[in-house]
Amino acid sequence: MRRTHDQLAADQNKPAPPVVTADLSEKTLILIGANAGLGFEAAKHFASMNPARLVLTARDEAKGKMALAQIQEDTGYTKAELWIIDLANFSSVIAFADKAERELDRLDILIENAGMMTYEYEEAEGWERTLHTNNLGPGLLAIRMIPKMVETARRYSAHPRVVVVASDTHYWTKIEKDVIGSAGILATLSNKEYCTQEVMYHRYHDTKLLNVLFARALQVHVRSSPAMITVCAVNPGLCVSGLLTRLPSDAEEAQAILKDRDEFAFTTEEGSRQLVYGAVGSLDDEEKIRGKYIQMSEVTEESDFAISEDGKIVEGKVWEEMLEIFGDIDPKVTEVAKVYLTKP
Ligand SMILES: NC(=O)c1ccc[n+]([C@@H]2O[C@H](COP(=O)([O-])OP(=O)(O)OC[C@H]3O[C@@H](n4cnc5c(N)ncnc54)[C@H](OP(=O)(O)O)[C@@H]3O)[C@@H](O)[C@H]2O)c1
Question: In the UniProt record, does the keyword Oxidoreductase occur (predicted)?
Fold first, then answer.
């Protein structure tokens, strides 16, 4: 599907779909990036549904504690836990996954919400920082959490979910042919010489496209048990949050986004309803949302590029590259791949 600016504006000018609710009294949730923006508002929605365990994350402990106190004050829910994770640091992601493996009895819902947007090239552990934060860190975490989710499905006859927070910016980019044909798509996208200013202007969009493709790939590869785990990508819509505060005032693209924000952005509370929909919407029909992209609480066709032959090639290659990259830094990933993930 194509998505024009007018379609975006039309959706943004509609009332945000209402929040869905569910009985979470026996469920365990992990919500990544809960100290601010969409994650903070989604955390309050989930807290109001009284989950058995609600693991909220921040990368900064002080910010996390402040958010936790506010969530408790606003909802009366006292069981939320603060765990620390920095997605741009593989050791931090691995430590978090190890802790979840050890300390959680079950995992019903993982919401991969945290993310960043910048137009500046910066590295984190040798990777372009946006790619590391929005794709590599979340990818590693999701794969490491699969065994716990499969175990949850088996032991409790549950239908665990992974929710990847994507964006409609994924409609406005594609991965170029020379990148697709290169030895490594992720390595090329991360390469400093490749990341010219022009490339960095759509880098965030690229990472959100990779989010959509990752959700699809993970759904396809969860070994012979696709019925047990649901993976979906959600678009919260354009919302007023901290995400847009690092945009340079002299870039035309940034100015266009900021103008839209001022004209028709949702609040973070409104946008957070899409995170909640991904987690507990369509409970009577898991199949409907498996591997799908959701916006305005409806399954919506992904971008023309995402569903094109090239899109499918990128989906498959990036999946393989991720397994290799993650396997090199975390032997448990290789084990997960062997036991739980398979070729389609
Ligand atoms: N706002 C929008 O219009 C919009 C539209 C579509 C999609 N989205 C997506 O929604 C998600 C949330 O964005 P938001 O709008 O709520 O932005 P936000 O207000 O900037 O919140 C981003 C969250 O991600 C965390 N984060 C950033 N880098 C991190 C890292 N390296 N490790 C762990 N956590 C990190 C932030 O923590 P700190 O507070 O420590 O920075 C914060 O908790 C993102 O995936 C974004 O792409 C947003």
Answer: yes
Q: Tens digits of per-residue pLDDT, 72-89?
A: 999 999 999 999 999 999
Measure the CA–CA gap between 287 and 323, rounded to whole angstroms. 26
- Return the C-alpha torsion angle 42, 221, 289, 3, nearest 10: 90
Residue 329's CB: how many other CB atoms inside 10 A? 14
C-alpha 28/C-alpha 216 separation (Å) is: 23
Ligand 1 pocket mutation, candidates 45, 83, 112, 116, criterion most atoms within 8 A of CB: 116
Total domains in the fold of the chain? 1
Q: Which domain holds residue 122?
A: 11-237+268-329
CA 23–ligand 1 middle distance (angstroms): 27
Identify whether 340 is part of a domain.
no
15 in a domain, yes or no? yes
For residue 25, what are its two tokens? Answer: 């009294």
- Give me the half-sphere count of Cα atoms (radius 13 Å) on the Cβ side of residue 341: 21
Q: What DSSP string describes 282-308?
A: TTT-HHHHTT-EEETTEEE---HHHHS
- Is residue 243 in a domain? no
In a domain, 321, yes or no: yes
**CATH no. for residue 78?**
3.40.50.720
Cα of 148 from ligand 1 centre, angstroms? 25
| pLDDT tens-digit map of 30-48 | 999 999 999 999 999 999 9
Determine whether the shortest distance from the Cβ of 31 to ligand 1 is under 6 A: no
59 Cβ below 6 A of ligand 1? yes
Please identify, by atom number, the ligand 1 atom nearest to the C-alpha of residue 211: 45
Catalytic residues: 204
Alpha helices in the chain (DSSP H): 5-13, 37-48, 61-75, 90-103, 129-131, 137-156, 177-180, 185-190, 197-201, 203-221, 252-264, 268-280, 286-289, 304-307, 309-329, 331-340
At 224 the pLDDT is 60
Instruction: Say yes or no: CB of residue 275 within 6 Å of ligand 1.
Output: no
What's the 115 CA to ligand 1 centre distance in angstroms?
A: 4
